[in-house]
Amino acid sequence: MANPPTFHHKARKRFGQNFLHDPGVIQRIIQAIAPQQDQHLVEIGPGQGALTASLVTSGGQTHVIELDRDLVPGLLASFTSYNNFHLHQGDALKFNFSQLADTNQKIRVIGNLPYNISTPLLFHLLSFRHIISDMHFMLQKEVVERLAAQPGEKAYGRLGIMAQYYCQVDYLFTVSPGAFKPAPKVDSAIVKLTPHQQIDSPADDIRQLEQVVKLAFSQRRKTIRNTLKSLFTTEDFHQLAIDPTLRPEQITLPQFISLANYLAKR
Fold first, then answer.
1. Distances in Å between the alpha carbon of 69 and those of 65, 87, 170?
2. How confident is the model at residue 180 (pLDDT cuts 50, 70, 90)?
3. Domains annotated on the chain, with CATH
4. Helices (H) and strands (E) in the chain, counts
5. Taking the complete model, does pTM exceed 0.85, yes or no?
């Protein structure tokens, strides 16, 4: 593992900055990613370059996207001598990731994501899933729990259902606040998202699936007969072999897809 660079920068609250500094955690993340020389690596929010150092020295083409202009000089000073390092100053939420992939090589995405943009950024990246081989993210632990949650679990909901529709979700490990400067007030976790090569049971209309899931969880303590009564009758549920007295957190992804497809056909 390469030693991360050191340059002074005060973390900005408006950018949700918490800089990773724990060498043990950095090494564990890099081991999970296992970057290779022939890969296209894309790091969102490199900060002070804690992970960037190991990504660049792996030999892979390393693109970093940094919103904070004040971090750019330090990143350039640390890595501009590497011909495989490419810096893009801008907002990852508006970034066109397809420009970083070529016909032969999908991109691998890495990031310590600010908590305030993590969910919209995940959905933005999922729109580029056809050019992404995998994604490794540091997120608020609660968000990772929601992404990986299974039916019947408290954290199961809209975010996890839609993420799992598109990806295999793997909760890798938890990271304590002390691994960062400044230390956040909550635990973080590393998650790996691997877009499905092919979705086994695709929804006929993805917007219908999103609508059904969103409405189902709008009142999670109620049964789906109540939360989805504007879309389905009790007879509709019986036709689909779904118990209308279940709560939304008890409904599986395939069942949500069958509800959406029923609606789309009707």
1. 11, 11, 33
2. confident
3. 13-195 (3.40.50.150), 206-265 (1.10.8.100)
4. 10, 9
5. yes
